[in-house]
Write a structure and sequence with these properties.
Blueprint (H helix, E strand, L loop, with lengths): L2 H4 L3 H10 L4 E5 L5 E2 L14 E5 L3 E10 L8 E8 L4 E4 L14 E9 L2 E8 L1
Antiparallel strand pairs: 1-2, 1-3, 4-5, 4-7, 5-6, 7-8
Length: about 120
């Protein structure tokens, strides 16, 4: 089943929510589990009874790496964030040096505009 055949466009809807300043996750009504990346069915169960719910924005760094660039461009980090609602997502932590992001660090989501599109990043909590 494809996005075109179902008329469901979870990625587009996710980005529209971000553009409206809201961090939303899909949740299965029957299992109660949230998921990320937006999709048309819950992984493992295949449940399609999905609804959008507002995320708390709270998370914890699960893994991180600093990406060094040619000077004078500063390094940046790529981090896997465990969300309070259960899913894990890839993003970056801002507000600290890339090499200072630590596993277990509590973080809070923030929506920014990058190159004209909304993007979810995290700040130390």
């Amino acid at each position: 089943m494809t996005e075109r055949s179902t008329g469901i466009r979870p990625e587009r809807e996710y980005r529209e929510h971000l553009a409206d300043g809201r961090f939303m996750l899909l949740r299965s009504r029957s299992s109660g589990r949230c998921m990320f990346y937006p999709r048309v069915a819950e992984p493992v169960t295949g449940n399609t009874d999905l609804e959008w719910v507002e995320a708390s924005g709270d998370g914890t760094v699960y893994a991180t790496t600093a990406v060094n660039q040619r000077p004078p461009t500063p390094a940046y980090n790529v981090a896997l964030i465990d969300l309070a609602e259960g899913p894990r997502m890839m993003s970056r932590v801002e507000g600290v040096a890339a090499e200072d992001v630590r596993i277990g660090m509590p973080v809070k989501a923030r929506i920014i505009d990058e190159d004209g599109a909304p993007l979810l990043v995290f700040d130390p909590a």
